[in-house]
Amino acid sequence: MAICSYCDKEMTDRNTVKCTGNGGLQDKTGTFHDPVPYEGKERCHDCNVKDGELHHPGCDMELCPKCKAQLISCDCFDFSAELITSCSCLELQCDDNLCKCCDCGDCNCCN
Predict the structure, then answer these.
(1) Residue 49 in contact with residue 56, Cβ under 8 Å?
(2) Tens digits of per-residue pLDDT, 7-66?
(3) Which of 15, 24, 43, 91 is the most exposed place for a label (fewest CB within 10 A)?
């Protein structure tokens, strides 16, 4: 079994076609970058997502949204920080429970 810690789905299950927990990354300057969807004729050999869908974080095939190199080996991001998860509030992004759409500090959508 290989359960993704971001979307809680079994990555080897043929019904799992994408990671719903991969919301993007902030680079070292604080700029947000959307994740790069997988492009391939077959499913990703590492995390099993379909063409056009988002990789499970940590996949060795995921590309860096900034430099387009292999994400796990580039130096664009500080991976000691958590990935940003999708925010249900207007489908914007939030980080550390601080909603970027209103900075209310009361965003529970990231939990």
Answers:
(1) yes
(2) 999 999 999 999 998 888 888 888 889 999 999 999 999 999 999 999 999 899 999 999
(3) 15
Strands in 98-99's sheet, in edge-to-edge order, are 85-86, 93-95, 98-99
Tell me the pLDDT tens digit for each residue of 46-60: 999 999 999 999 899
CA distance 77 to 100: 20
The encoded tokens of residue 26 equal: 């902030």
First to last CA, the chain: 24
Amino acid at 31: T
The rounded distance, in Å, linking the Cα atoms of 62 and 48 is 12
Q: How far, in Å, are 18, 40, 50, 79, 98 from residue 13 at the CA level?
A: 11, 18, 12, 27, 33
Q: Supply the DSSP symbol for 30.
A: S
Residues 6+ apart with CB under 8 A from 77: 25, 26, 27, 28, 64, 66, 71
